[in-house]
Amino acid sequence: MSKPLFVTDCDEVLLHMVTHFADWLHEAEDIHFDLENGGFEGALTRTENGEKVKPEEIWPLLGGFFDTEMPRQTVIPGAREALDEIAKIANVVILTNLTDARNQDRREQLKALGMDYPVVTNQGEKGPPLKKILDEYRPSVAVFVDDLPMHHKSAANYAGECWRLHMIGEEKLAPQVACAHKARHAHNRIDTWADALPWILEKLESGMPAPQIEEMENS
Prior knowledge:
The protein is built from 8 helices and 8 strands.
């Protein structure tokens, strides 16, 4: 039987990003990022005149951050140690929404921080690449972790056999983001690695594919 598989997002699950992005915006672009807004759109304002940054300007700003500021990023507490434990029983793959041109930079960034695992870069919803990873590894059981509700909905549509855990490791952001578990797209919502690791290991060791959430709740 093939090994279990653990597929995880990177930013706000393994590494802090948004707080470092906010600091860089203030320093380099004179832009204030309201971290309590709950999202990028409408949360960025120009300090000099209070104007909202237009949605089409946000992606280039994110690109600028990843061009030069990835060394700023720090590890979410417990993430590295959790991956060490998970890797003892499962294959680990990091599925991150960056352009393919940044794949090597992300791989080297994570390796330098003690997380040397395969990296799959992606743009857009994560259900299709998650399904592709599952088809490649053919695991006995799989767990998927991500911080964005939209990716859990996509994963549920394309890879329903995969256990799905909604996690936001950034404390300033977590209360602002809708819960994918409450929306019935994830099997659980846990925002710290200390609490998440036992749940993840239990699912990986069970050898059981994830049930439909309706079945799980009615059982």
